[in-house]
TrEMBL record:
The chain crosses the membrane at residues 46-66, 73-93, 105-124, 136-154, 166-188, 209-233, 245-262, 274-291, 327-353, 359-378. This is MFS transporter. The lineage of its organism: Archaea, Methanobacteriati, Methanobacteriota, Thermococci, Thermococcales. InterPro entries: MFS (IPR011701), MFS_dom (IPR020846), MFS_trans_sf (IPR036259), MFS_Transporters (IPR050171). It comes from Thermococcus thioreducens. It is a multi-pass membrane protein. Coiled coil: none annotated. GO terms for cellular component: plasma membrane.
Length: 388
């Protein structure tokens, strides 16, 4: 790749790193603030967490439509990222979980505009033969930052929420500036919508089936999303907050590191096989995490994260070949976020069901995902190639 293109892609990868540090530092801080200081119920924590993904679901699709109006509008995503710096400053001013949820809605809307645009740009700017691997590296750097962000939270826990949010704000501003520089370098390669031609680039798998699988998978792995994960692990295993954050960070880091190999196989072998594999692992993950022992809980979280992080670059590679690629990638982000919202709310409502005691103790909220796991396996088996 020529130097301008390479530098632009590297800057976008860097933005995944800095932006995720900002987000991941804030997530456990807000989770424990809402649960411990504001005394919110687990359902309320779920609403706080899922309000973010609900807003992100709608703005992801909106971002795809906006980008189709003109590629110069890609800079809106960078501005939205910097807007997060102002939003997180509101959290220390809250006194109820409802106020926290309202700010989470704002954060989600801004993130829905910014991240899908970045994913679209890196997908279309990268040569098709290495697209899944480069996109996987983009997500992998986000996972490294997720691990470091959890460590930053653990080491700054005594500073208090207000000072932690200042650190988060600084990283959000930096991320927005990096995105601006990247989009300027890659501007000539940004093509949100192409003419549909018989000899044009076409998806290797049916995009509609990919969206269905993305939706079901996101419902299942919702228990690893946001504040509810930290609270569940801490309470289920009786683990202190700092240790919870660092171990969840390590699970995400290892999952992302291994997901690169799944992306490599998708590039050189079979995208369909990778979709089948990730669907199987995602389907098993809540069943394992439901068993209340440290090995099974963290194995379930690891499998969910590995499956989801392996599926993301493969799905973006497939959808980048669609003639309306910006809308397709914004759409899959929207579908996944809406499904994560539904999955998180299911977990929050079912959390009050308690546990099933026997030789092992099972969390019934996680067992409630079993029908969705079965549906995911059925849809992945039916997956076929065939363009649009």
């Amino acid at each position: 790749m020529e130097s301008r293109r390479l530098v632009g892609i590297l800057l976008l990868i860097l933005s995944a790193f800095t932006g995720t540090i900002a987000f991941r530092l804030a997530t456990p801080a807000i989770a424990f603030y809402t649960r411990d200081i504001l005394q919110a119920s687990m359902l309320s924590v779920s609403i706080v967490s899922m309000s973010f993904v609900l807003a992100r679901a709608f703005s992801s699709v909106l971002g795809g439509f906006i980008l189709e109006r003109g590629k110069k509008l890609v800079y809106i995503g960078a501005m939205a990222m910097m807007g997060n710096a102002l939003a997180v400053q509101l959290y220390p001013l809250t006194s109820t979980w409802v106020q926290v949820a309202g700010i989470k809605l704002l954060n989600g809307f801004l993130n829905g505009l910014s991240w899908p645009m970045a994913q679209f740009v890196i997908a279309v700017a990268t040569p098709k033969e290495i697209r899944a691997r480069v996109t996987a590296i983009y997500f992998f750097f986000g996972s490294i930052a997720s691990l470091l962000g959890n460590y930053v939270y653990a080491y700054t826990i005594d500073l208090g929420l207000a000072k932690q949010m200042w650190i988060s704000s600084a990283f959000f501003v930096l991320t927005g500036l990096i995105m601006v520089a990247s989009y300027a370098l890659l501007y000539g390669r940004i093509t949100p919508r192409r003419k549909r031609t018989p000899d044009g680039e076409r998806p290797s798998l049916d995009p509609r089936r990919v969206l269905i699988i993305a939706s079901l998978m996101a419902v299942i792995v919702a228990f690893t999303s946001g504040e509810i994960t930290y609270v569940y692990v801490s309470e289920a295993l009786g683990m202190e907050k700092a240790r919870t954050a660092t171990l969840i960070g390590w699970a995400g880091f290892l999952a992302a590191m291994l997901s690169y190999f799944a992306s490599w196989l998708a590039d050189v072998r079979s995208e369909r096989r990778m979709v089948l594999l990730t669907s199987l692992l995602a389907a098993l993950s809540p069943l394992l995490a439901a068993v209340k022992t440290a090995p099974t809980v963290f194995l379930g979280i690891f499998l969910a994260l590995f499956a989801f992080q392996s599926f993301r670059p493969v799905s973006r590679k497939i959808l980048a070949s669609y003639h309306r690629s910006s809308l397709a990638i914004g759409g899959v982000n929207g579908v996944q976020n809406l499904s994560t919202f539904l999955g998180g709310m299911l977990f929050g409502f079912a959390y009050s069901l308690g546990e099933l005691h026997g030789i092992l103790t099972f969390n019934l909220a996680l067992l409630a995902f079993t029908p969705v796991s079965v549906a995911l396996l059925w849809q992945s088996v039916k997956l076929k190639g065939g363009g649009e």
